[in-house]
DNA sequence: CTCACTGTACTAACACAATAATACATCAAA
DNA sequence: TTTGATGTATTATTGTGTTAGTACAGTGAG
């Protein structure tokens, strides 16, 4: 796993883990790997993992059982809603960015067609 | 002008300035504001401006006349090519991100329609 | 109970982005 | 020539992301 230097690692890691929840690698109600395991998996410091996970907890995507581990939230709707919110944010941001480049919606669609 | 803390300011500033070139606020061949002026405009340190501008110089979007100022590159084609490259990168990245959310191209188009 | 595993907390050290304050060299204009 | 503008370079300081190492408390299994 490679991290960019354009953003703090803990934020990048947080996004990666959120994706794992969204795409079902970590399923609703399931336990996620321990802080120490994640640190090994992604070759970062346990403290960095903890910071990343606290982001996910703020998003209500995971919850903590103090001496047992951290778990994906049980209600799948929460995950689904998060997914839709993310998709909308990404779409809006994409369209805005294209607009800033002077590319209107009609042309934007051409760019999308071109990239299968 | 507000900067996020998710990315170094000099990179954010560099993107803003690149946009000013792309959308024609700073036209081909034109002089851009001095390092000190830009620092005042965006309320950042002159050193930060310099770092941002060196990014633009690496992209060949601007060039320097040592004691006269910095100028947008004269050849408009360079700017146009940069714009297209950016748009392609953004589109590709957007489609990949949506795919990671489990949203295929057909559904992605619906999201775009929904966001006029 | 003992041991291994959890999350959590703390300190220390390092790297680097960012700010601040100067200083210098070059050119153009007054 | 003098003045002011330009880019550039240097040094010091601050804040914080990251790593490293250690320690503690609670839980469950053997």
Describe, in plain words, how this protein is organized in 3D.
2 copies of one chain form a homodimer. Chain A is mainly α and 116 residues long. Chain A has 2 domains: 9-74, Arc Repressor Mutant, subunit A, CATH 1.10.10; 78-114, no CATH class. Helix content of chain A is 60%, strand content 7%. In chain A, a hairpin with a 3-residue loop joins strand 1 and strand 2 (69-72). In chain A, helix 1 (9-22) packs across helix 3 and helix 2 (35-42) crosses helix 3 (46-58). In chain A, 23% of the residues are buried. Chains A and B meet through helix 1, helix 4 and helix 5 of A and helix 1, helix 4 and helix 5 of B. The structure holds a DNA duplex (30 and 30 nucleotides).
Spans of chain A with pLDDT under 50 lasting ≥5 residues?
none
How many individual β-strands of chain A? 2
- CATH secondary-structure class of the largest domain in chain A: Mainly Alpha
Radius of gyration of chain A: 17 Å
Which terms summarize this structure?
116 residues; two-stranded antiparallel sheet; 60% helix; 2 strands; mainly alpha; homodimer; elongated; DNA-binding; 5 helices; Arc Repressor Mutant, subunit A
């Amino acid at each position: 796993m490679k991290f960019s230097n354009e953003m703090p690692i803990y934020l990048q890691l947080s996004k990666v883990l959120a994706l794992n929840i969204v795409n079902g690698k970590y399923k609703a109600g399931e336990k996620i790997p321990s802080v120490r395991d994640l640190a090994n998996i992604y070759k970062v410091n346990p403290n960095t993992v903890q910071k990343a996970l606290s982001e996910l907890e703020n998003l209500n995507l995971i919850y903590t059982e103090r001496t047992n581990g951290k778990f994906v939230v049980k209600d799948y709707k929460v995950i689904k809603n998060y997914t839709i919110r993310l998709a909308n944010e990404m779409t809006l941001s994409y369209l805005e960015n294209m607009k800033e480049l002077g590319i209107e919606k009609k042309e934007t669609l051409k760019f999308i067609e071109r990239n299968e």
